[in-house]
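Exercise 7.
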Amino acid sequence: MPSPGGVMRTHLFRPAVEGRYPGVLLFSEIYQVTDPIRRLAAYVAGHGFCVAVPEVYHEYEQPGTVLRYDAAGTDRGNALKVTKPVPAFDEDAVAALDGLAAHPACTGRLATMGVCLGGHLAYRAALDPRVAAAACFYATDIHGGTLGAGKQDDSLARMAELKAETLFIWGRQDPHVPFAARETIRARLEAVGATYGWLEVNGQHAFLRDEGPRYDPALFAQTLNAVIALFNRTLAG
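Solution. The predicted structure, written as C-alpha cells, is:
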C-alpha cells in the first residue's frame, strides 16, 4: 500500500469463501509480521474478517523483513519504535485503513487490533472516525507517552477523541504495563467517558504469542473469543 513514508508491504488474510467481509487492521509487535502474527491474523480471518497486517517499520527495513525473537531482534525492534516519528505511524494507519476499506473483499466496516507496540498503534488508529471497534492487547507506552522519536507521544491526551468501542486486554504479570500504568490508562478512559471494555487476566506480557514460554493457550482462547464477539457485534451490517 502507498503511504507518505513509501510503499508499505501489507499482508492480507481473508476467508477462503468468496465474498465481502468486515475489515480488521492488525498491528504486530516490534518484530513485524512473524509466524505467530500470521497465525493470529489467519485465526481472526477464519471467523469472517478481512485482515490486513502492515509492516510497521517499512521505512527502515527491506520488505518482508522479520525480526527474530532474540536479543538482537528485540534491540532492533525497540530501537525503531523510538526512531520512527509518531506522525509516521499515524500516516501509515490512515493509508492502511484506506487500502483495506477499498479492497474488494472488504465491506468497508473497519476495526483495529494489535499486540504490544501494535496494541498502542491499534488504539491510535481507532481515533480515526471510520473505526467502529478496537482490541488492544497489552499496549505498551500509552501510560508513559514514550512512543516514537523523542518519546513524547500524545496518546493519553487524545483519548477524548476515541469514539470506537475499545477492548483493552492486559496480563496482570506484565512488567511492561504494571498496575499503576494500567490505572493511569483506565482513569483517563473514565475521565473522557470512553466506550470501552477492560479485561485483565493472569498472564505475562506476550501471552498471546504462540511461541515461547509465555504463551498461554487458554488465555488465547478466552481473550480472542471476547475480541471476535466485539467485532461481530460492532461490525455487523
